[in-house]
Task: inverse folding
């Protein structure tokens, strides 16, 4: 592969190891990319607070990397250091209300969360926090703001999260698909919940918005990922790279499959791109 201008990467189980740490080899590769003028951008389901919690190296290298990040599964582009927002894509209130009413009827015991206000607004209904751990959202469940279900949909959200005490994410994806809802898109990042954004909004959308700002064509972008929410990004980029621990759907379409996140597949490939 030729040296790209932009390396777009998922974080969890791609750049990050399964223990959610950045390996010394990966940190060295990130610094080498900064020195070489290659822009590495986290493209993640996480919000700004979540990126800062697990990958502070991106802020430490902000001057070289520009501070760019695409968060909330492509719905939000921002500067990690300042928090300045460059674009946002939200769902309509009507679509959110329809989602809550119909999915709750079809799947009893689901619990909803709403993410808004550039990722700083994080609202949950009663029962959601009890199903959560800190690692889910880089937030202490005991501090989550609990509101009634109607308040979750009273203004446009970047993303809504749906979880269930028993059903898997694949089960929830199937249930969502069976409803035939319009104006919405559901995906999974590998976390134990469903993630819902506006129709047409995904990591490919967010990465395309960012690279348009930077005047970088898709052919000069390499994208890394492992989860279902990375699928459209890998297909859009000039080169799509799946780590070996990726979901089968990604392994089937990736231009290149590299060692797993625990075997430094991201770092090994970035080193090769820079050489």
Result:
């Amino acid at each position: 592969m030729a040296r790209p201008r932009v390396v777009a990467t998922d974080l969890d189980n791609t750049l990050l190891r399964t223990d959610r740490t950045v390996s010394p080899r990966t940190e060295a590769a990130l610094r080498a990319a900064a020195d070489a003028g290659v822009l590495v951008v986290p493209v993640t389901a996480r919000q700004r607070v979540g990126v800062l919690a697990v990958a502070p190296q991106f802020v430490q290298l902000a001057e070289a990397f520009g501070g760019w990040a695409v968060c909330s599964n492509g719905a939000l582009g921002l500067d990690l250091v300042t928090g300045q927002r460059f674009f946002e894509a939200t769902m309509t209130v009507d679509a959110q209300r329809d989602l809550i009413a119909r999915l709750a009827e079809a799947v009893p015991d689901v619990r909803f969360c709403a993410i808004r206000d550039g990722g700083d607004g994080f609202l949950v209904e009663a029962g959601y926090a009890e199903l959560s751990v800190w690692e889910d959202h880089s937030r202490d469940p005991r501090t989550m703001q609990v509101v009634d279900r109607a308040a979750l949909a009273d203004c446009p959200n970047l993303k809504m999260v749906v979880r269930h005490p028993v059903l898997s994410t694949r089960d929830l994806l199937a249930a969502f698909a069976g409803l035939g809802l319009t104006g919405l898109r559901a995906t999974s990042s590998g976390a134990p919940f469903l993630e819902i954004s506006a129709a047409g909004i995904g990591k490919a959308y967010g990465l395309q918005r960012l690279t348009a700002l930077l005047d970088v064509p898709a052919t000069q972008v390499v994208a890394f990922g492992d989860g279902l929410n990375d699928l459209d990004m890998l297909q859009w980029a000039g080169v799509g790279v799946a780590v070996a621990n990726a979901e089968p759907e990604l392994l089937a379409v990736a231009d290149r499959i590299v060692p797993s996140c625990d075997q430094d597949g991201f770092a090994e490939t970035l080193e090769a791109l820079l050489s």
Remarks:
- The domain at 93-198 is CATH 3.30.1240.10 (Hypothetical Protein, Haloacid Dehalogenase-like Hydrolase; Chain: A; domain 2).
- The chain has a mean pLDDT of 95.
